[in-house]
Amino acid sequence: MAKLVVEVADASDLMPKDGQGSASPFVEVEFEGQKQRTSTKHKELNPQWNEKLVLDLNDPRDLPTSTIQVVVYNDGREKVPGGGGGGQLKNFLGRVRISGSSVLFSEPDSTVQRYPLDKRGLFSHIKGEIALRVYAVVGGGGGSSFTPAPEMPGVEERVEQPAPLREIDPNKGEEEEEFHHHNHDHDHEEMMKSKKKHKEKDKVRTFHSIPTGAAAHHRPPPQQAPPGAAFPPPFSGGGFGMGFEAHHQKTPVIETRTDYARAATPAPGTSVMHHMHMPKQNPEFLLVETSPPLAGRMRYKGGDKTSSTYDLVEQMHFLYVSVVKARDLPVMDVSGSLDPYVEVKLGNYKGKTKYLEKNQYPVWNQIFAFSKERLQSNLLEVMVKDKDFAKDDFVGRVYFDLTEVPLRVPPDSPLAPQWYRLEDRKGFKGREGELMLAVWMGTQADEAFPEAWHSDAHDIGHTNLANTRSKVYFSPKLYYLRVQVIEAQDLVPHDKGRLPDAYVKVVLGNQARASRPSQMRTVNPIWNEELMYVASEPFEDFIIITVEDRVGPGREEILGRAIVSLRDVPQRLETTKMPEPRWFSLMKHYSDDEGKERKEKFSSKILLGLCLEAGYHVLDESTHFSSNLQPSSKHLRKSSIGILELGILSAKNLLPMKGREGRTTDSYCVAKYGNKWIRTRTLLDTLHPKWNEQFSWEVYDPCTVITIGVFDNWHTNGHSDIRDQRIGKVRIRLSTLETDKIYTHYYPLLVLQPNGLKKHGEIQLALRFTCTAWVNMVVQYGKPLLPKMHYAQPIPVRHIDWLRHQAMQIVAGRLARAEPPLRREVVEYMLDVDYHMWSLRRSKANFHRIMSVLSGVTAVFKWFNDICFWRNPITTCLVHILFLILVCYPELVLPTVFLYLFVIGLWNYRFRPRHPPHMDIRLSQADHVHPDELDEEFDSFPTSRPSDIVRMRYDRLRSVAGRVQTVIGDLASQGERAQALLSWRDPRATAIFIIFSLISAVFIYVTPFQIVAMLFGLYMLRHPKFRSRLPSVPVNFFKRLPAKSDLLL
């Protein structure tokens, strides 16, 4: 009996249906009265099933005239108490109707196709697509083919030449279906019966679906089905049942969206697939080149465009209304007072100024901006109203015809505001009341753009408006503070009968470090220890030095304290001598009951060396993707070599981050390069924002990285305790960009979360790196990355991570005090504050990076081995000839090597990267990471997980460390064997080696070097007939040398 197999691979970009911005989808396939369904994927808008649904095919000859219906539902049983039963809710998410004429009767020839989900009715709100693979089989072989009877040539033609995929028109014959999303199973069955009664010939529309070319590797772990979920029944008996069970264990060869985090262990067969097929990068995570209409690019093409500093973004026009002030306003209240405010109305958009109490001459100085794309009227109405308890009173108004509004293009001077007399409701101008206004059409290059109240934020209050504006920030200037704790004199312990066990504690702001206790217990201790801190301008903090006596476990007594202002600490440039140490008096510490007013005639002393290091660069981000390498002192900084310009154009397909609040996403961008941070304005309640804002930075070093992040603003409605959510981040290295070239691409916004890798959308950026000093830029490649002080007096490795963390905290705290604040969670995400934390995923990624680097060396050895074993006789003969030429003319060796490198570089120029780099999912090992590894990576420090999970992870770490330990031990053994050649640990082996060395020295001395090299080379390249399969004599001799592994306990 024939079977119809529908492989449900995955779906993407489904409509959220559970009221929380997500859905729990499952797929139901109906064919000739049969129904099969997949498992439910809980809370997933981009689900992966990789399941096969098998249905009976009674007569294969009727398949071309049949229709396969695939429907995606949201499993809404969580809304029903008890969770189960036949009346559970199903929300319609979309469907696909496939014509049987497109189904192939051969599994190997069938490919995965992506189908857009269709609506069920006129009022359905559906989006997304689903990946399916449909084929028919006869008998037991999955790859068996079926040939119809000769009397059906049409069908046979379709099998040999597959017709394009077809979908039944969903808008015909569907009037009897209801238009609601929430349907019960019983209602759905009744609806399908009524459809069969009214069945008529459907109109077929053809669409093109491009099959994926490469096989992608996926590991779908078996998930435990929730209660009430139906699965395809297992088939028993016959060859087909065996074939189905075998195929169910395989991972489908399909390029699909991946969701990476699952709750169980991968299937047994997936590891085999992983080693057999090296998957290509998912195209969903790659760059997409774009060609937006940018003025900079058009000007290069010869277009006659007006010059503008905003040539990397699309020009956006706005209607600006500047409300300055009013005068001679009439009194509206009985009490003789007036609380005026101005309301600017354009179509459905309305903006209001603040109301000023009891003021007939108010001054507002507020600007409103209305996007030209959203203008809903040709008439602008500006009204002055009086704030009142019940209903605001009308004072007067002014009308503007938008066709008469002037256009202002920078660098024109700002438009001068004018006085306009207010009109009453009947259009008559009264004697009292005038309003000063300025109305003009402009672009985002206008000076009023950053401070304007935009029309998309008209429902935000004045207090929250600042959180939506575009701003530029600068990081504080950071210095390293070096504290040398040398010695102290005349310490007076509280217990006169014991010598103090003294140590020094130094505190600067939130940074506290302590020295080691003195080696000898004495009243004149000596430490000679150095401590490092991070200080920032302006130097408002104080250094608090405390000498404490460790009386017992957990008990310390303060022996004295000194306070030094940072302003009094001298600065040191480059490698000059440290400033002379100074003696500081230690103030005696008294408790309240001992009296604070006691004056001491005698005080202990401490000798300290203090200096602010201005020759270092304070690292606030990882050196691997640092954006600033300049020293703290501006006198030591390099000159600028160019300008980096960034245009933040738009984003698309963002995920709704506020589904529970009935909104989508309030997104804004942050970019960081050097000490300059920028923030775009927040675009409210949209999944496809268009910012079109341009920024520029001076470039001092080409080997730096710019970071762009996208965030969801949670502070537009007065929330102060909620963190802004991450949407994604992009890093671009400047040295990979060509100069004076405009790059425009969509970059994927990827975020690694505890439940797996998520794509939150795509951001469109325009980049241009302009070099202004070519000689300086070329010279930079020969200079060290960091300033001179990092190499002359390097900072101890044990201090670097701690100092970087403190610098990040200072930068985050300072930027959080700006208005609007650049919040701590944003700064920490941009600076990768947790980059140094342990991650098994990153360890795997670094291991694969090492193996990738060593693969080139391995390839050279493999090539040389092929030459030695004469795998390609022609190549081996050419190598022999080249070797003999180089031996006869040794002066050609180095020129040949460098010429070879030049030719390889010139050849690889054809294959150079044409796009900027972006986050590599394959390199990051984020495409098939285990859920437990992610849970460990996102765990806090110290851990907050249960003891059994921590024990399991510890055992896993011990297993990995055991393998590393074995490799390190093998490397140590090889080195010890090399040392044993002359150490006489094995006297016979050492005697053999030194006698051989003497004979070799005499032989090489009396024989010309060219003869020796030729003999050695010909011996290494000898024919396999003259080779033995056993290891060579030198290898056997080396392996017999003793190592110290037998001395280990």
From TrEMBL:
PROSITE patterns in the record: C2
CDD domains (UniProt xref): C2A_MCTP_PRT_plant, C2B_MCTP_PRT_plant, C2C_MCTP_PRT_plant, C2D_MCTP_PRT_plant
Region annotated Disordered, chain positions: 212-236
Main location: membrane
Start and end residues of each C2 domain: 1-113, 300-420, 459-584, 625-747
Compartments, as annotated in UniProt: Membrane
InterPro entries for this protein: C2_dom, C2_domain_sf, C2B_MCTP_PRT_plant, C2C_MCTP_PRT_plant, C2D_MCTP_PRT_plant, MCTP_C, QUIRKY-like
Pfam family name, one: PRT_C
Similarity comment: family membership: Belongs to the MCTP family.
Pro residues biased stretches: 221-235
Keywords annotated in UniProt: Calcium, Membrane, Repeat, Transmembrane, Transmembrane helix
GO CC terms of this entry: membrane
Name of the protein in its database record: C2 domain-containing protein
Translocase as UniProt keyword: no
Keyword Disulfide bond: no
Entry's transmembrane regions: 877-907, 991-1021
Organism this protein belongs to: Linum trigynum
Lipid bilayer topology: Multi-pass membrane protein
